[in-house]
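Sanity check

After download, print the first record. It should look like this:
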Amino acid sequence: MEKVEHIGIAVKDLARANELYAQLLNTQPYKTEEVPSEKVITSFFKTGETKIELLAATDETSVIAKFLQKKGEGLHHIAFAVDDIQSEMQRLKQAGFTLLNETPKEGADNKLICFVHPKETNGVLIELCQERT
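Expected structure tokens:
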């Protein structure tokens, strides 16, 4: 894993959260994108090397909607950049980690993604991200 790629925050109202984070970070989001496969709409902020991804559900059956119902707004995941997501997934599986998807899937911000189950990472959902070429 190379670096923290972004921090994902689940929000109920994306427009309201965008206003809050724009004021907090003193910058506007550089991208808003719907990810139909995940039933979310995302908004990305960048300050220095740090990226923040706000995630709002577009459907009440989405993982984010369920997360919000169970835990409320807040930290959803930490994403790490990887050069080769397939190799990293294999390494983690061999080390005994449970992956939430068997193959990489398309994510926001031009990434291939995979999630590691939080039960094995001290309750923190970990996302692997590889830039799509």
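If your output differs, re-run the checksum step. Summary of this record's structure: The mean pLDDT is 95.
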